[in-house]
Amino acid sequence: MSPFTAELIGTMILVTLGDGVVANVLLNKSKGQNSGWIVITAGWALGVAVAVYSVNAISGAHLNPAVTLGLASIGKFAWANVPNYIAGQMLGGMLGGAVVWLAYLPHWGPTSDPGAKLAVFCTGPAIRDHGKNLVTEVIGTVVLVAGVLAILSPSNLVPNSGFKDGFGPFLVGVLVWSIGLSLGGPTGYAINPARDLGPRLAHCLLPIAGKGSSDWNYAWVPVIGPIIGGIIGAWFYKLFWPA
Fold this sequence. Notes:
Blueprint: H1 3-26, H2 37-59, H3 65-73, H4 82-103, H5 114-121, H6 130-151, H7 163-183, H8 193-205, H9 221-240
């Protein structure tokens, strides 16, 4: 498997399980309907962990343009490989959204709220203020990228213990769960352009009855915010953690 394919499949798994739990909670007549924010954040956390475990050995499991750009900005990833990784991530995000659409095909009709249908695919603000929403996404992604690098930093691990390979993806999932619980309220914690823009494109293109707008007016926030936050988070790690 090539790194491009690994990033595509990994991101598709991430979005399938992450958007899938949102569909389970929000769509009418689903068995998980109204089970709440804790279920959504737990589902996303587990989805991230499973996705990272799936392709970590092949591509490093970035699964997120903010991670790829952040690592490249501090010299931990080759800039020449950035377009290939981001292309795989974006395509994987779109395919993941399409898989969720298929999995919940009987539930789109009975769900009358177009906002709930859109929320399955992508994020939106609780209080719409693009500048402040951008700040929230930047902060969440700083925590994500700096946190991932710090958790898996050689200085924080027992040498030759195998901990990074065996438990690293699980800890990344725990970190995402923590971000969702603590920082996810204002914007739904996209913290990943591929996780938001890819499925948003799927929402736009798929034949979903009564789906309404894909909210392109807001769509730049969960793209630009995570990119800024990913670069800041990577530099924060580089400045304060030993190699």
